[in-house]
Design a protein that fits this description.
The chain has one domain (8-83). 37% of the residues lie in helices and 7% in strands. It is built from three helices and two strands; from the N terminus they run ββααα. It has helices spanning 40-44, 52-67, 74-83; strands at 8-10, 16-18. It has a two-stranded antiparallel sheet with strand order 1-2. The protein is elongated.
Length: 84
């Protein structure tokens, strides 16, 4: 038996969504072991528990905005952070 480690997410319906595909040449039945971080509920409520895809998309948007000159003074950003 060969092991492959990949990360993923289990949605509220119990479906396992892998962060990246596993490249194989055939359709084959596999065994899956799921390791849950502890405690699960705290991580689900954690606003910093952002998926890699969301982070990449956000960075791409930010880079495009910076290239287009769509920036704000840092003082304005700090004021928004302090207001939260």
């Amino acid at each position: 038996m060969r092991a492959v480690e990949v990360a993923g997410t289990i949605d509220r319906q119990g479906h396992l969504l892998l962060d990246q595909p596993i490249n194989v040449d055939v359709s084959i039945r596999v065994r899956v072991i799921v390791l849950f971080p502890e405690p699960i509920q705290e991580l689900a409520d954690d606003p910093d528990n952002t998926s890699i895809e969301e982070i990449k998309a956000s960075l791409k948007r930010a880079f495009q905005q910076a290239k287009a000159g769509q920036t704000r003074p840092i003082s304005e950003l700090w004021n928004r952070i302090d207001a939260e």
